[in-house]
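Running low. Invent one:
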Amino acid sequence: MEKLYVICLILGIGLVLSFVIILFLYNKLGKIQRNLRKIDEELAGESAEQLLLRSIYKQDAISHEIEVIKNDIEKLQEKQMHCFDKLSVVRYPASSEIGPKLSYSVGLTNEAEDALIITGLHYRQGLQVYYKQVKEGISETELSDEEKSVIRRNKAEYVMKADIK
C-alpha cells in the first residue's frame, strides 16, 4: 500500500509540474501570436517576398536620390567658389593732414581668388569712392598697401572682422 501512495505522490507531482509547464508554454504561445498579429498588420496581406522586393526597390530609389543630391551638392560647391564669402575692412587716414581714420577699404573675396575692393578716401573737400577688381589673384590696376592688406586678411581668414590699422 505504501508503494501505491508513493506512486500516486510521484504522479501527482508530475501532473502539477506538467500543468505548470503547460501554463508557461501557453503564455509563450500567446506572446508569439500577438507578435504574429502585429506582423500581419504591418504586412497588410503582403508576403515576405513581396515585402523584400518592395524594400529593395525603395533602396534603389533612395540610392538614386542620394546620387542626385551628391551631384547637386557638387554643383553648389562649384558655384559657391565664385561667390563672395569673405569680407575684410581696413580704416586709415587718407593723408597726413587729416587726423582721424575716416578712409576705408572693403574687400570681398571668394575661394577662386576673385575680389572686389571698394575704397573710400576722405579728404577735406569730400569723399571719393571707387572700386577695383581682382580676377584669380591678379588686379587690373595697382593696389594700395591698404587694399593689399584687405586681400591678405581675407586669405588669412579674418572673415567678417573689421580691423583698424
